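quick one, two chains, predict together pls
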Amino acid sequence: MPLTNRSNDSSAGASHTNWSAILDAGSDSSTAAASRDTVAQRYWPAIHAFVRRSGISHAEAEDVTQGFICDVMLGRNLLSHAAPERGRFRSLLLTAVRNYVYDELRRRTATTRHPSTGSVVALDGASVGAISHLDPKADDPEAAFDREWVRMLIDQAAHVVRENAQSKGLDAAWDIFDRRLLRPMCEGAAPVSTEEFIKQWSLSSPAQVANILVRMKRKFTAALMQQLGHGDDDQEIVHREIAGLLAALERGPH
Amino acid sequence: MKDPASSSAEPLKWVLQATSNPDATPAKMLVCWLAQEIDPTLTDLDGALVDSRTPLVLLNSLKDAFKHLRREGETGDDRSIAATYYALTIAAAIVNHRMRISRQTDEAIEDALRICWNDESCDLRLRDLCWRAFYALRLGLEKSGR
């Protein structure tokens, strides 16, 4: 059950943490091709959000996103430059996307000024429409990128926790966590009441519901940390990354 | 209804809570979250236990939640800290409301309180709470002639 209605499933290969998939994708291993697919699929929404918010029409944004993934992520093997000790992958990817999009916009401007046909062409209607509908008060490209990044992390962590709970027959625990906390937070759904859970899952008391909920919350937090980290001694890295993402979310309009 | 964009920050805050305080063990985080689940306005569990304005009904709900965790906790640390906080809610009710919220025997309650105040890792205010509850219980026993 996807958390959001987005067409791209960013939980792809969620059993891999961010770093394990990235490192494998940049290597010569036999699973590198599959990891490259996983990484491309996982980061598509964040890259696309940046491209879209840069003023590129919806239709073209898909091509530009695809172009970036093929030319830079895979073609120039951006992933082989990624290493936990060199800093956050988010920063590396964001810088690469920013440069790619600016080059793309510059190229388009140059083409418009000096059309190959020798005549001045009007901007394509769809592009003009897309740009004019951009809300100036809405996200800047980086804020949109960060917001999609956070959604991706949450989707991945949710995927891991759900799989884990269901494999252990803890369907009630997942359901309670999902409908009481996760969906209300991520989708704005109304949280289901404690009484309804007690009735639906034949539980004994509100205390039991509360206990199930916080245990799942702890598992989810651990999964989220796992997605962000790379090893056991990187609590500080995770802490800094989270603080940075929170600051980015607070900067952007909601 | 919450705005999805703004509330997607919430899970990040959970991680921040878990990583910002090196003294906050996973078990301690769990009891704090449990308390907040019972009362979302409760941001300082230890403070609430020593505060005489904390309502008896809230102490009772917290006691039930910790009792459940003491029995069903996933790890030994979870069950152990739940036992401590279970005793502390009983102590808070005795000290701040002069009420017993447990059907445990006096001896059992005294044993639990003794464990808390002997625990040097425990917040001093909480150890003091246990000490006062122990005496209140003793005085009550004397008064009732038991």
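Confidence is low (pLDDT under 50) at residues 141-146 of chain B.
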